[in-house]
Each structure stands twice: as structure tokens, then as C-alpha cells.
Design a protein that fits this description.
It is elongated and about 70 Å long. The chain is 59% helix and 15% strand. By secondary structure, the chain is an alpha+beta fold. The strands form 2 sheets. It has a 4-stranded antiparallel beta sheet with strand order 3-4-6-5, with helices on one face. The chain has a two-stranded antiparallel ribbon with strand order 1-2. The mean pLDDT is 88. It contains 4 helices and 6 strands, in the order αββββαββαα. A hairpin with a 4-residue loop joins strand 5 and strand 6. The longest helix has 38 residues. The chain has 2 domains: 105 residues, Topoisomerase I, Chain A, domain 4 (Orthogonal Bundle); 68 residues, Gyrase A, domain 2. It holds the Pfam family RRF. Responsible for the release of ribosomes from messenger RNA at the termination of protein biosynthesis. May increase the efficiency of translation by recycling ribosomes from one round of translation to another.
């Protein structure tokens, strides 16, 4: 019984950690005023008929604080990369000079900053919902073990531990979102 209980708690902790990791990845994709190659992560380019990640067909680098450069490994990939960036709807217009594509990140307006903060808070809320769902599943599994013979005190202790885990991970979500909000609102 105790082994099964430990397994439930470990699974819950691992799943909550994965929710935090996912949140971190999503937050890096939200631009905060300075150029970051992760802004273009997830953009798929039509590479000879096969959708391929942009970083698999080109070198992406930061030229300066507000400029990303994308240098395709094959010159004939300039047009497909340009089309993919426009289609991705990340709010940036590619500048193609025939050799390299430049993405200029305009300075963020106050209105755009507020939109980005809303987006950050939305991602944070998704992470919190995921963590709460993991808590619910863990508590249901603990109640099932209790029906199978686990003592009521042990079940209550396990539920309390699950709640403590949940509180800890939700605090981590709040911390990540607050740091990203501060980064976005910094001029």
C-alpha cells in the first residue's frame, strides 16, 4: 500500500514539474522587447515538401538587441522561410536581401506590452489548471487506495502532502509569470 501511495505522489510531482517546464518553454516564446532566437521556435518551413523546423534549415542568430538574422543553408530556401515566418503570425515582417533574412523587432508600445502581459498570465493560468488537474487525479487515486484498505489517517496525510505540492508548484508558476511580466514592462 505504502509503495503505491509513494508512486502516486511521485507521479504527481513529476507531472507538476513537467507543467512548469512547459510553462517556461511557452514564456520564452513570448518576446519581451529584445531579440531571442526562441521567438521563431516552432515555425515550420516547407522543405522540399516536408514540414521542417526553421532551425533545421537555417542558422538563427541575434545581430543586435532588436534584430534576428536567419541565414538559410541553401539559398533557394529564402522564399519558403519568408513565407513560413509571415504565416506563423508572430507579428514580425521578414526583410529578405537575397542572402539573409532579417527580423527587426519594433520597440514595444504600452498597448502591446499589456497584450503580452495578458498572454503571459493566460499561459500561467493554463499551467495552474494543469497542476490542479494533476492534484485532482492524485487525490482520486488516494481515495481509491483508501477503499482498497489504506488507513484513513494515511490517506489524509497523503492528500495534505498532495495539496502542499500543488501550493508549491502554483507559487512557482506565479513567480515565473511575475518575472516575465516585469521583463515585458521594463522599458
Amino acid at each position: 500500500m505504502q509503495d503505491e501511495l509513494n508512486l502516486i505522489l511521485d507521479d504527481a510531482k513529476d507531472s507538476m514539474q513537467k507543467a512548469i517546464s512547459h510553462l517556461e518553454v511557452e514564456l520564452t516564446k513570448i518576446r519581451a522587447g529584445k531579440a531571442n532566437p526562441q521567438i521563431v521556435d516552432g515555425i515550420m518551413v516547407d522543405y522540399y515538401g516536408a514540414p521542417t523546423a526553421l532551425n533545421q534549415v537555417a542558422n538563427i542568430s541575434v545581430a543586435d538587441a532588436r534584430t534576428l538574422t536567419i541565414q538559410p543553408w541553401e539559398k533557394n530556401m529564402l522564399q519558403p522561410i519568408e513565407r513560413a515566418i509571415i504565416a506563423s503570425n508572430i507579428g514580425l515582417n521578414p526583410q529578405n536581401d537575397g542572402v539573409i533574412i532579417r527580423l527587426f523587432l519594433p520597440p514595444l508600445t504600452e498597448e502591446r506590452r499589456k497584450e503580452l502581459v495578458k498572454k503571459v498570465n493566460g499561459e500561467g493560468e493554463h499551467a495552474k489548471v494543469a497542476i490542479r488537474n494533476i492534484r485532482r487525479d492524485a487525490i482520486e487515486a488516494i481515495k481509491k487506495l483508501q477503499k482498497d484498505g489504506l488507513s484513513e489517517d494515511t490517506a489524509k496525510d497523503a492528500e495534505a502532502e498532495t495539496q502542499q505540492l500543488t501550493d508549491k508548484f502554483i507559487a512557482a508558476v506565479d513567480k515565473h509569470c511575475a518575472a516575465k511580466d516585469k521583463e515585458i514592462m521594463a522599458i
